[in-house]
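User: Before I run my own analysis I want an independent prediction to cross-check against. Here's the chain; please return only the C-alpha cells and, at the end, one sentence I can use as a sanity check.
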Amino acid sequence: MAKQHNKLVRDKIPEIIAANGDTSHTRTLEGKAFKNAHRDKLLEEAREVVGADDEKLIEELADVQEVIQALISECDFDTQAVNEMQKRKREDRGGFEDGVFLESTA
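Assistant: C-alpha cells:
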C-alpha cells in the first residue's frame, strides 16, 4: 500500500527512493504553491529542531537554513537585503543571545 507524504522534499529524494528499489510519484510546484510548500517545509523543519537532541541539532539547523535559502530565492529576495534587514532588527531590538525571557507585561 502506498504511503502518502504530500510535502516538499529535497531535489534528489526521488532518485534515492528509486535506488532503494521503490517508486515515487511527484509533481513540480511553481508560483504560489511552491512558496506555500516552502513555508510548510520551514515549519516542519523547525519542529524537527525543537525535537532534536544535541547530536542531531546541527543537521536539523542545516535543514532549516536550506529551506530559508530556497524560500529567499523563490521570493526573488536578495540574500544581502535579508541580511541587512536582520542586522537592522538586531541593532534596533537586539538579538537572541542574552537569554531574555519575557514573562509578562502590564
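Sanity check: Helices lie at 13-19, 31-51, 54-74, 79-93.
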